[in-house]
Target: ABC transporter
Amino acid sequence: MIHTSWQDFLAAREIWREPLLASLVAGALCGFLGVYVVLRRTVFVSAALTQLSTLGLIAALMLEESLGVEVEHAGVQLAVALAFSVAGALALGMALRGRKLPAESGVGTTYVLAGALVVLGANRLVHAAHDLNAMVFGNAVAVPVADLLILTGVALACAVVHALFAKELVFVSFDGETAAALGYRTGRWNALLFLTLGLAIPVSARALGALPVFAFLTIPAAAALLLASRLRAVFALATAIGVFAAAGGYLASWFWQLPTGATMVVLAGLCAVPGAFLRRR
Model:
């Protein structure tokens, strides 16, 4: 049953303008970066970084509730989440470079430890449970202009980096051994890629939630790989699917009064169905 008409929706543009724009930007950013995540078979890395970002938010909230330090300003919470995510991204990049242990072991350890700390931290929170729930499952209902500007700035920075160094990042990501043999500093290029992921995940999760961000780092790229074979087409299609699922999910959640983040994830999953069907044929 539809609870909102188009007339009511358009009349409320002052409410949904920033959240919808943030959904578009975050969907495009995560959809694009997800191609690297899926093709490098590092889906678990995005999950670990998302978990670290959530842990950073909990750390900021605990400063307010447990230590009596007022950090309730959204910018401070985002800054702490960024610090955790970027530090984790750089650490994982170095760990993957060393290869003393299988890559999955370090990523899995990070994910499990961060997840355990998230549970312990959430158990200590009293007054900020709503903030944590929105961060994890997505609640892109009210996005401050400042958060939209930060998200847009990070997206533009990532776009510039990947435009300038597309050849190196693609080569190192998908044929690292050959790149190393040709003299490419694979460790540095991998660190740069992980840095863009570490920046993108917290700011996107701030707008969409951790669950939609993790989904957008995997599902659009997987759907695009089922539908296209050329790498450029895969990047473009994954970005488009991310935008469509984020915007469509937001609109559907508005009209049908559904949870925003979950609606986005389901719509992204539906985008993968045609590709799976075509591959079966």
Q: What stands out?
A: The longest helix spans residues 13-39. Residues 6-276 form a domain with the ABC transporter involved in vitamin B12 uptake, BtuC fold (CATH 1.10.3470.10). The chain has a mean pLDDT of 83.
